[in-house]
Amino acid sequence: MRPQALPLSVLEAQYRVDQFNAAYGDILDRGDYAAWVELFIEECLYKVIPRENHDAGLPLATMALESQGMLKDRAYGIVNTLFHAPYYQRHVIGVAQILNDNGIEIRATANYSVFRTKPGSVSEIYNVGRYLDIFIREGEGLKLKERVCVFDSEMILNSMIYPI
């Protein structure tokens, strides 16, 4: 079967989502948590949930932040109050699949891998899964209305400090 050409609107949405995800990973990898907060609209949802719970429709999540204010609190805590052994993250985000684009919202999904490196140590796979996203178009850019990180492993190494 020969692939069909995609309409320009789908290609434009694909480009914008992939560029957004590249910037998202870069912002987190640099530890710019104030900029991470600004990637979301005020009334947003950021959730990190195990695949087992998500697939079973169970609401229990590892992290659930239900507004930009809650994201700001998390960012403040990471920078100013949490004490932990430092490590670096590196996000590898796959090409997004556009599920729906109604001109206002874009629903998309993308696979991700997050690697963790502690100073003086080897890198390790920290978290692997997929993003389930709802983007809002804002001018020429996008903001997240919802990002649900569904991770595949049943266990998290130590604790989850930084956003996925």
Automatic annotation (TrEMBL):
- One Pfam annotation, family name? Ring_hydroxyl_B
From the UniProt record, list the coiled-coil ranges: none
Gene3D superfamilies according to UniProt? 3.10.450.50
Is the keyword Transmembrane assigned to this protein? Answer: no
Annotated SUPFAM superfamilies: NTF2-like
Keyword set includes Acyltransferase: no
**Could you tell me the keywords of this UniProt record?**
Dioxygenase, Oxidoreductase
Q: Which domain of life is it from?
A: Bacteria
> Which InterPro entries does this entry report, sorted A to Z?
NTF2-like_dom_sf, Rng_hydr_dOase-bsu
Name one molecular function that GO assigns to this entry.
dioxygenase activity
To which protein family does this belong?
A: Belongs to the bacterial ring-hydroxylating dioxygenase beta subunit family.
Protein name in UniProt: Aromatic-ring-hydroxylating dioxygenase subunit beta
